[in-house]
Amino acid sequence: MDDTYRLPRIDLIEFCKSHNIKFKEHFALEFDKIAFISGNISFFEVVALATLIVQFVPERVMELGTFNGRTTLNMALNMMGGDIVTVDLPKDAPTKLPLADGKNEPDDELGFIGLTDKLFTNYPKRPAGYIQIASIQQIWSDSALIDHDIYRDHFDFMFVDASHSYENCGNDTATAFELVKQGGIIAWHDYNGWPGVTKALNHAAHHIHTNTKFYWMHDTSIVVAMNNKRGR
């Protein structure tokens, strides 16, 4: 497979319709703290993740790569209950695997590693009688060191947006397939933007999880797949 290969494209709604027998034709989304800074996903990518959340109704979500918590908060707002576990690297912590290919990760992203004040920190609670957003649990850990035994088959949805290196993305992908339930949804960010992510997902799709269909979502750098645990 050469470096120019890309996964098949799919429209967001087409993916939801074809993978969800309870597809909702009419639905509402909620957003907050949507101002963009370098390192955030785009606003349409926030819309895409929120749509996946509303369509597939996960009760337990894991996010790898909290950054400033903008994505975490907006997923929580659209879950309307349940739990999110979000994993971020502690400040100055050594990592098991390289952070980014060629150590070219932008300084503004590295400057946010270990930031303890997230956008969901002290987010106002809703008045009694209103549907509460998902509870958010922050875990400080290298994503390559997550204990699979604790969380195996625990999550309904996972968003992978941690380190951009081939080694780390490959490891995070293996983690996702272990921790997400059969029929759960996995989404990855930065495909076709970071070479390590692109290479790792192409390799996973064609050499490891060959019974799982990986799709690159139109107008985004998000790859999405439904976890198929019945075979590779």
Description:
By secondary structure, this protein is of the alpha/beta class. The chain has one domain (9-21, 38-226): Rossmann fold (3-Layer(aba) Sandwich). It has 7 helices and 8 strands. The chain has helices spanning 12-19, 43-56, 70-79, 107-110, 148-151, 166-179, 195-208, and strands at 9-10, 60-64, 83-88, 135-140, 155-160, 180-188, 215-217, 223-226. It has an 8-stranded mixed sheet with strand order 1-7-8-6-5-2-3-4, sandwiched between helices. Strand 2, helix 3 (70-79) and strand 3 form a beta-alpha-beta unit. Helix 2 runs parallel beside helix 3 and helix 6 (166-179) packs across helix 7 (195-208). Mean pLDDT is 92; it is low at 102-108.
Short description:
The protein has 232 residues and is α/β, with parallel strands linked by helices. The chain is built from 7 helices and 8 strands, in the order βααβαβαβαβαβαββ.
CATH superfamily name? Vaccinia Virus protein VP39
Distance between termini?
19 Å
Would you count the extended β strands for me? 8
Provide the residue-averaged pLDDT.
Answer: 92
Label the structural class.
alpha/beta
**Main beta sheet, described?**
8 strands, mixed
- Contiguous low-pLDDT stretches (5 residues minimum) are 102-108
**Continuous helix count:** 7
Strand order of the largest sheet: 1-7-8-6-5-2-3-4
**CATH architecture label:** 3-Layer(aba) Sandwich
> What general outline do the C-alpha atoms trace?
globular
Our Rg estimate from Cα atoms comes to 17 Å
Strand content: 15-25%
Q: Please report the first level of CATH classification, the CATH class.
A: Alpha Beta
